[in-house]
Amino acid sequence: MPTTAPFSRPFLLRNTLLALAALLAWDAGGLDLPLARLFGDAAGFALRDHWLLGPVMHEGGRLLGWLGALLLCLGVWWPRGPLRGLARRHRLQLAVSTLAAALAVSVLKGFSSTSCPQELALFGRSAQYLSHWRWPGTADGGSGHCFPAGHASAGFAFVSGWFAFRRAGLRGQADGWLLAALAAGLLLGLAQQARGAHFMSHTLWSAWLCWVVAWAMDGLFNRQAAGRAAPSCLEP
Asked: CA dist 58 to 51, 153, 191, 224, Å?
């Protein structure tokens, strides 16, 4: 099974930086509020307590995300389905990278003082709208801890599968895994957008952060594997 990834690092770097530039342009363009106003007004967000977006997409999506992470952890030792095509080191990379991405988003949320749209005075509550870059320590009058989007990371965290499957030489599975993770994260993010629980930038930054963490973890695991494979200078 291949031990090196069939992808170009310059290609990854270029596209990761292009995505970063697009996110910064989104923030600079102030596109969050116009999009939020499609779903909310001074009376609040009409879909905030909708049965599909709340109990199903919000609570159900969170549970499915944790269930998926649990299955990846168990799959390190007892692989099922597509995980059978991965060596144990790649299955371990997939499980650890997925958890690391979700943890990174959660840690950043803990430091953020940005409140969710549904708490803003613009949408019938009391918090003031401030850029999510004005953190930590800049209170907006709300509860904060809304940036980046933790709920969307329940899908985006699984982009780590793209690196693990590509390391194993399984390009088709890698691309399918990536598309599924991005679609799940975007769907969860849109549901939260409609409820007023996040701005779109929160979702997009969550996706970018999960991708960067997955890439960094891929580099870490690959260096460790290369180090184990290299002959020791102390060997006779």
From this structure: 10, 12, 8, 37
